[in-house]
Amino acid sequence: MSNLPLKEHKEHAGWKAAKPFLTGSLAGMTATCFIQPVDMVKVRIQLAAGGTGGAQGPIEIVKSIHANEGLKGFYSGLSAALTRQVLYTGARLGLFDKFTHLAHNPEEKHLPFYKLAGCAMAAGGFAAVVGNPADLALVRMQSDSLLPAAEKRGYKNIGDALVSIVKAEGAMGLFGGVAPTVYRAMAQNFGMLAFNAKAKSALEHMEFGNDNIRVFTAAAIGGFAASVFALPFDYVKTQVQKMTADPVTGKMPYTGPLDCAMKQVKAGGPLVLYSGFPIFYMRMAPHAMISLIMQDQIKKLWKSMGL
Questions:
Q1: In Å, how far are 63, 144, 158 from 131, measured between CA atoms?
Q2: Strands of 84-227, DSSP E
Q3: CATH number of 20-304
Q4: Which band of pLDDT confidence, cut at 50, 70 and 90, is reported for residue 1?
Q5: Among residues 91, 102, 213, 284, which one has the fewest Cβ atoms lying within 10 Å of its Cβ?
Q6: Are 4 and 60 in contact (CB under 8 A)?
Q7: pLDDT of 55
Q8: CA–CA gap between residue 95 and residue 44 (Å, rounded)
């Protein structure tokens, strides 16, 4: 039995339960503040490849955003991006810690890869559902300036976006594109968290460098793997979430993520799903690395504070 008084024990238990999720949220928000401009360019490349029009390459898109929207254009949807990190990254990193703890066998020094993969994909799937409203708002805010004047949504911030979506599409409208978002999150988490954890344990076994070098190297491996596995799902997710009904027929261009993927591949070939890979990697890998490194540092901070 704990020697803590009942009230203190409850507070301690509450903090223990919340700590992994708070750690993940702080890590993700820190990474997003650095990566948001790159994410903006990535989304614009995908929209151009998907038929929205406009510049195709990252340099042309950077010039276009700067000329038409100024420096603030690179941070369009930042409030939605930060909200998404609180919900999505907080949940996926927190749940991954919880799931790996539950999956751990006392006889195992390190979890086998299949358990890491299962925990990573489960955490990503659950977190994607929680974070979908903010993710939907983010994609729409980032793509709004590319739409014809009559179709612009003009969301002012994340709160305005969410309220407007509910008014126009109902509460379930907040979960538009949730299926491709879940698939993308599972693929991303499989690459990012499972490969990061496996690389870290392998580097420890090899006695490679010191702790900081191992954390950085494992994060780099996880970031690359996340980019490779997640981009096709991310591309489809972007197309589904930004679609609007045809003004004449009232029909949506895609009936779902599979229909979207098939039409995109038919129109542009299989490699269209990897449109903007360099910029996606520049966005995904650093974000994953910063998140994982910050998560490790925040955990050390809690420990140094006795929390």
A1: 31, 20, 13
A2: none
A3: 1.50.40.10
A4: very low
A5: 102
A6: no
A7: 44
A8: 31
Considering 42-51, 76-85, 184-193, 245-254, the range whose residues carry the highest mean pLDDT is 184-193
φ, ψ dihedrals at 34, nearest 5°? -85, -35
**Closest among 213, 259, 222 to 239, alpha carbons compared:** 259
Q: CA quadruple 172, 176, 180, 185: dihedral positive or negative?
A: negative
At residue 3, does pLDDT exceed 70?
no
Amino acid sitting at position 42: K
Domain ranges for the chain = 20-304
Q: What residue type is assigned to position 275 of the chain?
A: S
CA distance 277 to 54: 18
Checking phi first, is residue 53 left (phi over 0); if not, alpha (psi -120 to 50) or beta?
left
C-alpha 248 chain-centroid distance: 34
pLDDT of residue 23: 93
Residue 79 token pair? 């409030």
Alpha carbon 283 to chain centroid, angstroms? 10
Q: Which residue has the tokens 């520049």?
A: 282
